[in-house]
Amino acid sequence: MGFSYDSGLVTKLDQVRFLVGDADETEVFLQDDEISWLIDIWYPKGSIYYVAAMACEAIAAKFSREVTTTSDSQTVGTSELQRKYLDLAARLLRQHETLLTGGEVSMGGINAGEQPDPTVTRPAFGTGMHDFVEAGPQDRGDEAAYLSPEWEGWYR
After folding, report:
1. Which of 5, 13, 55, 114 has the fewest CB atoms within 10 Å, i.e. the most exposed one?
2. Which residues, 6+ apart, have CB-to-CB distance to 104 below 8 Å?
3. pLDDT at 118
4. Cβ distance 63 to 78 under 8 Å?
5. How far is it, in rounded angstroms, from Cα 121 to Cα 126?
6. Shortest CA distance to 16 belongs to which of 51, 60, 63?
């Protein structure tokens, strides 16, 4: 347990502390071991922004047990801190989603700049595959279509 932070943001731990705003060693919300655990659990699922959002939710959970107290017309409301960290978690999740959706065009495994492999045989279907009308409709799925005298003209 402890606190470490380097403003060079070289390690993932420093990056999480920066994004969460937990860089003041006089007021530490998460220990290094806690952040390291969050990184181990959540970093494989996304980006450092996702880990930071989970860290914000952990900090908000710490503030959830605090109560608002009023004494001599002075009010201390830690529930505001909980709400702020939950809002920060939501913003970090949106930034994580932006990271995932930005960049190259993704078409489900098709790379826009990819060239066909010349060693692979071209598929047997393509433009004009339905031009032979005597074969019947070729796009009926499981339904069988046969040419028969009573169906004359059905392909017109």
Report:
1. 114
2. 111, 112
3. 78
4. yes
5. 13
6. 51
Reading phi first (left if > 0) and then psi (alpha if -120 to 50, else beta), residue 41 is in alpha
Question: Is residue 156 pLDDT above 50, yes or no?
Answer: no
Residue 76: enclosing H or E segment and its boundaries?
Answer: strand 74-76
Contact 74, 31 (CB under 8 A): no
Comparing C-alpha atoms, which of 37, 1, 39, 33 is closest to residue 19?
Answer: 39
Query: Distance (Å, rounded) from C-alpha 4 to C-alpha 23?
Result: 8
Tokens of 120: 């692979």
Listing DSSP states for 94-124 in one string gives: HHHHHHHHSSS---SS--TTPPPPTTSPPPS
Strand 69-71 and strand 74-76: the pairing is antiparallel
Express each pLDDT in 61-80 by its tens digit: 988 877 677 777 787 777 78
Measured CA angle at 58 (ends 56, 64), to 5 deg = 100
Model confidence, pTM = 0.59
